[in-house]
Amino acid sequence: MSCHPVFAQLSDRSDPLPVGTLSHDSFGGAFFYDPNYLASGGRVLEPGQLHHRSSRPIKIKLTDREGIPGILADAGPDGWGRKVLEQRLGHPPDALEALLLTPDDGVGCLVVGEKTPQRWPGLADLPELIKAPPLTALGGEKPKTTIQIDGQLWIAKWPEHDDPPHLPFYEAAALRVASRLGMPAADSTVRQMPDGRYALLVKRFDRLPDGTRLPFASALTALGQGGQVLGSGRSYLALAKALVRWTRDAHAPAGLWPRIALNGLLGNIDDHPRNHGLLFEDGRWRLSPVFDVVPAYIHRETVDLAMPFLQAGSRLSAVVSAQTLVRAASAYGYDEETARIWLKEAANRIVEEWPTVLEELDAPAEVGWETRYVGRGAAVIAMDSRQVFR
Question: How far apart, in Å, are the Cα atoms of 106 and each of 115, 136, 197?
Fold first, then answer.
């Protein structure tokens, strides 16, 4: 069994703080808190898997995130990062290799193994980085890399060859719309590359301008092992309960319902548990800003979110309509009347302001036509039940 130190890198300007050790083999993994860390009053890393203050091993089954504690797995790559690492290694990396062999640009503040300080490329380097993608510990399936702009870290994402060429504008517009609807959302913009392609730039919200690194956990980690398989454990209803445990705030799920509605209004069906998260700031966990929202750019007769959000009798439902969104609201701390008003206003604002947001992003004229289903979908939800909005 191999053993590797785990550090909390609390700032780019400070030495890493030893917090424990990760052991791993073909049967699973185990995490040990560092006795000195516990003796000095260090907090538990998260209130789920790693919640107890003990130097005894916390065992993780191989079937649970490949034997890696969830909050550590979040700091490592999955789809795109592993693909690039596989090209370098000549074989598919396992979860531990992915953590050890990628740079220190994963989300949050936790690092597995010794990492060499790295100078991050700037915006001017992006065209070359697109040609030869660097290693990254960032999650997600799309090509991306970490860059630095004016001392702040950003994520640069660009579409793959089978994606719509203007996809970055769709995502940037969705994040700006979320902010206009009162939700904290990642800052974003779009830049055109010399080859004519566009890159989406998203400012890292887990890295502060002074170098502070904020702990981060995906909703997948908050849900625990039940969130890794389809079923009631992988639902917004389960996430609402997990939020109460993590934040110790009975009202925390109220921040979740507008995000459910936003995904429904924009037709985003990629709202899986790794596209939601929690940040630890000012001594407590809370929902992270909105990120990774991809509006619909093809017509769908119905929209089903990636996770169910409504308990309909004995069944869970992910089907989006004005009725289902309003009926679901009470499970997240919203009364139905407030939900009706919010949903109607949000739908109307998306229809009215979507063209303006695209104009602010300097999007080509054809992007408005390509994303016509966004406005249409919101309009349908706003109008599909006069009973709901009468």
Answer: 12, 7, 25
